[in-house]
């Protein structure tokens, strides 16, 4: 007898059904953490796509067969972030307790936009936001909301900055001469994207030159002086704490002093580096962050929480509420003179209870332990820097300030564009081998190899294996070129 949809729902809600999926997750994590198998799948993308070329399923299948496909065609064809040789983008090898929280978030399925639909969720999110505001040195008027990530957080913060400078912009627009946003040349693309999305135009994003991959504060001062002489309004200055390319930290103390003197909104993009506030060793890199008006922070990066879990924090929560000048009395309600519904300060209406993952991670491991993991990741980047400095075939581009290091493969006799192309090919060939996984970027017009240590399981031996593998890959490519 064919089971009805209700029969299938009942079967799938059983512990036995859940165990099938939990075992798949545990096996995936265990094999990855042990360094078993390739970091990235060898399957050609076209071949993998063919596996999913199928008609819309009209009838269901057994849960066992679905789990088998998840094992073979999804988990088996995914990059293993928990593998100690994964040294790629800024996506974490997530903490297990936070991973196991995901099914509960899905089962509860409360939307965090309104308190009446998320009684516990609203309180937990508010508590986590309060913890982070305290770490940043914000006072009692501070607040914030969870976001999908740093890009949304920066966009939200700059919307608040626009509302502060142009309170009529929501109804009237930004006018014929919009204000500008000033940021460093190594700022995340979220800044120029926000300039376009907010109606300012990407040409209204002003880039300040860097010094040692950090915003040059003297150049910032000169830029602000020039804009003032031209009568050009500045909506915000965006400083970066943990840049994408090199993990570098702008001088927040000096920038906060400068923007404070001139009454300019300061936003700190700390999506990557704000987690240093948990670190006993690296928190000093964020000295001055309490002078910011807003902060973007991604726990799904250096706090090692699963995607997605981003936050925007503001020194004055009212600034964030004014950014969204809409009323929805069918949803939002005041309680004790304050709007407690999170939807009043967020782009999202239907929104997952992602704050629970962060709360569980902090409850399970403690802030000090997560800070120690931050230090461990940074220590590994420092070790890699020493290994690169001692290796005759590699050159470090900078000293790491966090967990990111950029360096170059420099075989003798190759220069210029040929060297850039060789570094690109080395990275691609090395990643295809499955032995490890790194990224690449352009710095000062040069192609560089880029490593981000996002897995606390990565040991010194894995870093040594990385350089050996890259050198071997480069030698093989050069031998093929000369054959």
Give descriptors for this structure.
single chain, 483 residues, alpha/beta, Aspartate Aminotransferase, domain 2, Aspartate Aminotransferase, domain 1, seven-stranded mixed beta sheet, four-stranded antiparallel beta sheet, 15 strands, 44% helix, 13% strand, globular
Provide a concise account of the structure shown.
With 483 residues, the chain is an alpha/beta fold. It contains 16 helices and 15 strands.
Which helices and strands occur, and which strands form pairs?
Elements (H helix, E strand, L loop, with lengths): L4 H8 L2 H19 L11 H7 L11 H12 L21 H13 L10 H18 L6 E5 L2 H16 L3 H4 L7 E5 L5 H8 L7 E4 L1 E2 L2 E2 L1 H13 L4 E7 L11 H11 L3 E5 L23 E4 L12 E5 L2 H7 L10 E2 L2 E2 L15 H11 L1 H24 L3 E3 L7 E6 L6 H18 L5 E5 L2 E7 L7 H23 L1
Structure description:
With 483 residues, this protein is an alpha/beta fold. It has 2 domains: 258 residues, 3-Layer(aba) Sandwich (Aspartate Aminotransferase, domain 2); 115 residues, Alpha-Beta Complex (Aspartate Aminotransferase, domain 1). Helix content is 44%, strand content 13%. The protein has a 7-stranded mixed sheet, with helices on both faces. A 4-stranded antiparallel sheet has the order 12-13-15-14. The chain has a two-stranded antiparallel sheet with strand order 4-5. A hairpin with a 7-residue loop joins strand 12 and strand 13.
CATH superfamily of the largest domain: Type I PLP-dependent aspartate aminotransferase-like (Major domain)
Shape: globular
Largest sheet: 7 strands, mixed
Helix content: 40-55%
Separation of termini? 66 Å
Detail the poorly predicted runs.
none
The percentage of residues in β strands lies in 5-15%
Number of helices: 16
Number of strands: 15
CATH architecture of the largest domain: 3-Layer(aba) Sandwich
Oligomer: single chain
For the record, the CATH class of the largest domain is Alpha Beta
Count of structural domains: 2
Structural class: alpha/beta
CATH topology description of the largest domain: Aspartate Aminotransferase, domain 2
**CA-based gyration radius:** 24 Å
Strand order of the largest sheet: 1-9-8-7-6-2-3
- Look at the structure and give the mean pLDDT: 94
